[in-house]
Design brief:
By secondary structure, this protein is mainly alpha-helical. Helices cover 51% and strands 0% of the residues.
Length: 63
């Protein structure tokens, strides 16, 4: 799967939830998974999401 398809597999709501949850983890002291000069947890979480290294998955029901 290409990187562009990887990003598009989440809805905008899932993306917001993933970034928000990861930003909270970072703000509470979780290790940052990328090299960055950013200090803001939200911007760090966005960078991690864009590089597909966020350790969060989405579980969907089988309707």
């Amino acid at each position: 799967m290409t990187e562009e398809k990887e990003k598009n597999k989440y809805t905008k709501y899932e993306k917001a939830r993933i970034i928000g949850a990861r930003a909270l983890q970072i703000a509470m002291g979780a290790p940052v998974l990328i090299e960055t000069d950013e200090l803001d947890p939200i911007n760090i979480a966005i960078e991690e999401f864009e590089k597909s290294v966020v350790p969060i998955t989405v579980r969907r029901s089988k309707d």
